[in-house]
């Protein structure tokens, strides 16, 4: 069942310092990769949606605990209520992006396939240069689209 709570993709829903770094990152990336663009896929995320993401790969037990039933399906370890994501704050302290091939209007994602696309490797390096940390280094689960202040 789809949620009724909207996810923001608006850079104005980011803290000011993160807005500035998002703009710098996007400007540098699009100069370095003509024909590609960065699109925000999430800035602020309400706790109800965070909980939906948290539940993927988990089951809620009668005693209130959550247990992982499919590790490959787990998207996040933040439930949005007891354990907040940086997206759950307003103004958000993190954003998620997609790399889009503008000629084909198709996103390029990091999957379990190797190697990681060149554009993603470079985006992570550029993020670091502008003072951002990327969730692609996390394990269980890694989160390549996620950026936050370093």
List key phrases describing it.
150 residues; alpha+beta; Muramoyl-pentapeptide Carboxypeptidase, domain 2; five-stranded antiparallel β-sheet; 3 helices; globular
Average pLDDT score: 94
Overall geometry comes to: globular
How would a textbook summarize the main sheet? 5 strands, antiparallel
CATH topology: Muramoyl-pentapeptide Carboxypeptidase, domain 2
- Low-confidence region ranges: none
Which secondary-structure class do the elements indicate?
alpha+beta
List the helices and strands in order. Answer: HEHEEEEHEE
Q: How many strands? A: 7
Number of helices: 3
Model description:
It is a single chain. Helix 1 (16-32) packs across helix 3. This protein has 150 residues and is of the alpha+beta class. The radius of gyration is 16 Å and the shape is globular. The protein has three helices and seven strands. A hairpin with a 7-residue loop joins strand 6 (132-135) and strand 7 (143-149). The relative contact order is 0.19. Strands 1, 4, 5, 6 and 7 form a five-stranded antiparallel β-sheet that branches. The protein has a two-stranded antiparallel ribbon with strand order 2-3. It has one domain (11-145): Muramoyl-pentapeptide Carboxypeptidase, domain 2, CATH 3.30.1380.10.
Can you lay out the helices and strands and say which pair or pack?
Layout: H1 16-32, E1 36-42, H2 47-55, E2 58-60, E3 66-68, E4 94-101, E5 106-108, H3 118-129, E6 132-135, E7 143-149
Antiparallel strand pairs: 1-4, 2-3, 4-5, 4-7, 6-7
């Amino acid at each position: 069942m789809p949620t009724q709570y909207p996810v923001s993709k608006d850079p104005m829903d980011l803290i000011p310092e993160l807005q500035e770094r998002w703009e710098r990152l996007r400007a540098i990336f699009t100069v370095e990769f003509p024909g590609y663009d960065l699109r925000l896929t999430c800035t602020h995320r309400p706790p109800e949606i965070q909980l939906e993401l948290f539940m993927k790969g988990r089951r809620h037990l009668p005693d209130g605990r959550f247990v992982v039933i499919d590790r490959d399906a787990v998207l996040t370890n933040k439930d949005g209520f007891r354990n907040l994501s940086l997206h759950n704050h307003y103004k958000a302290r993190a954003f998620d992006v997609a790399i889009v091939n503008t000629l084909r209007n198709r996103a390029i994602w990091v999957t379990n396939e190797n190697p990681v696309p060149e554009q993603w490797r470079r985006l992570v390096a550029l993020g670091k240069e502008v003072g951002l940390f990327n969730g692609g280094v996390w394990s269980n689960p890694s989160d390549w689209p996620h950026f936050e202040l370093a």
